[in-house]
Amino acid sequence: MFLSVFTIFAVFFNNFTIFQYQQEFLKIMKFKKPLLLAIIAVVFALANIVNKDDQKPPAPPAISSGQHSETQSIAAAIHSHAHKVWVRGEGKVVALLADDTQGARHQRILVEIPKTRQTVLIAHNIDIAPRIDRLKKGETISFTGEYIWNDKGGVLHWTHHDPQGRKKGGWIEVHGRRYQ
Questions:
Q1: pTM of the model
Q2: What is the 3-class SS of the chain, one letter each residue?
């Protein structure tokens, strides 16, 4: 269409110089047209990738910290990479690790959270709460405490009462007994 209108204009005014420029322009565009189309395709592809990242499901609602007025599930805390939030949950003991004896002593229990298949390290302060002596690998435990996410699944601590009585504190339940 562009070529025919331009040609008619050039013939009508008997101005073949314009016609020659138009021919040169079309020759240049023949070589650059595939390049231009390729650039446009890449831009659309990149825009599509960026939009797919924006279409991820929304994270769970915010999880509050402090006096744990809102205790959330451990699965929601893991999903949202929460930091210093109060959680409640249960998991299967996958390993009983050596006690941490640096500073306050902690019994270390590695549990797998069923909904996420993620492991969480429970650091149970045995200078404040009783040790869980009969605990075995494969047993299911329930817990409440303060969760801190990390790339290995996270750490749960404050699984004991608050010796100063400022907050409610957490606990671990196993074999029908609550350790706090």
A1: 0.61
A2: CHHHHHHHHHHHCCCHHHHHHHHHHHHHHHHHHHHHHHHHHHHHHHHHHHHHHHCCCCCCCCCCCCCCCCCEEHHHHHHCCCEEEEEEEEEEEEEEEEEECCCCCEEEEEEEECCCCEEEEEEEECCCCCCCCCCCCCCEEEEEEEEECCCCCCEEECCCCCCCCCCCCCEEEECCEEEC
Instruction: Indicate if 159 and 118 belong to the same structural domain.
Output: yes
What are the angstrom distances between the C-alpha of 141 and each of 76, 110, 129? 18, 11, 16
pLDDT tens string 8-61? 444 444 554 555 655 665 566 566 666 656 667 766 666 666 555 444 444 444
* Co-location of 47 and 100 in the same domain: no
The reply to whether 90 and 175 lie within a common domain is: yes
